[in-house]
Design goal:
InterPro entries: AB_hydrolase_1, AB_hydrolase_fold, Carboxylesterase_BioH. Keywords: Hydrolase. By secondary structure, the protein is of the alpha/beta class. Helices cover 43% and strands 17% of the residues. The protein has an eight-stranded mixed β-sheet with strand order 1-2-4-3-5-6-7-8, with helices on both faces. Strand 7, helix 10 and strand 8 form a beta-alpha-beta unit. The chain is globular.
């Protein structure tokens, strides 16, 4: 565990070296989502498996989240993209890295690939989409609703009853984040990349969606928008694919990196699993 002061922001960073002690096959940066998410989601699901496969694994808490500093303002998408770029620069990661982004973390990854394409070798986006007008409008509604509801004890009691005490604690923390910062108003006001800027994202992209997710319809649009993109679906899952189907996500990620030319120190990996294989592994 480390804390780095970059650009006036104290950041919590976790870095896992290849477990066999050899040189890393590549660097993978794991970018988490908004509000109830943090690097812990990766630490307990994907990160250690990638280190076992011989990868240099970088995880960090985004601004306002986890153990990273929580400024009152500075929460537009471009600030999060700047944070990722500053982290890579601060750690002297000058070559292209592989990005795995969960939910809003994928939107940050797309933002970096559009702005600094030479820094990104590939993107695996889990339940995510690039920023657009429809994305901004949707986030506006979600964040306004959360800002109102997550400070109500009746709401938190319902979450505890339906989802458990741990999820209720995350919801309470998210409510404090929204109450203490301008995040709910700044995210929808972010600078949005144009279509030409998004189409310039030339790195390989794999987008992963749950079949029951409200984002699953993004697949066809994303496939048509990006020059080197395809999508895959995890049967029976909604938005929380990473934490609800971690084995499937690990399998997909390792297969994807192998396909992108990363020489993993795991047994040889087959091509990306088929829909039937994913369905079997999700059971």
């Amino acid at each position: 565990m480390a804390f780095l002061d970059l650009g006036g922001l104290r950041r919590h960073v976790q870095r896992l070296a290849p477990q066999d002690g050899g040189p890393p096959a590549a660097t993978v940066v794991l970018v988490h989502g908004l509000l109830t998410d943090s690097l812990a989601s990766y630490y307990f699901t994907l990160g250690p498996a990638l280190a076992t496969a011989g990868l240099d694994v970088l995880m960090y808490d985004q601004r306002g989240h986890g153990r990273t500093a929580r400024p009152a303002t500075g929460y537009r998408l471009e600030h999060f993209v700047d944070d990722l770029a500053a982290l890579l620069d601060g750690l002297d990661l000058t070559g292209p890295v592989h990005l795995v982004g969960n939910s809003f973390g994928g939107t940050v990854a797309f933002g970096l690939a559009a702005r600094r394409p030479a820094r990104v070798a590939s993107i695996l986006a889990i339940e995510s989409e690039p920023a657009s007008r429809s994305w901004a409008a949707k986030l506006d509604g979600i964040l306004r609703h959360a800002e109102h509801e997550l400070v109500r004890e009746t709401t938190l009691a319902w979450v505890a009853e339906q989802r458990g005490a741990h999820t209720a604690r995350l919801a309470r923390s998210a409510g404090r984040l929204l109450a203490q910062t301008s995040l709910a108003r700044e995210i929808p006001a972010s600078r949005l990349p144009g279509g030409a800027e998004l189409r310039s994202i030339s790195c390989p992209v794999l987008a992963v969606y749950g079949t029951d997710s409200d984002l699953a319809h993004q697949a066809a649009w994303l496939d048509g928008l990006l020059p080197d993109c395809r999508t895959t679906f995890v049967p029976g899952q909604e938005h929380s694919v990473l934490v609800e189907a971690p084995y499937t996500v690990r399998k997909l990620t390792l297969s994807w990196l192998h396909e992108c030319g990363v020489r993993l120190r795991e047994p040889a990996h087959a091509p990306l699993p088929t829909g039937r294989e994913l369905e079997d592994s999700a059971r």
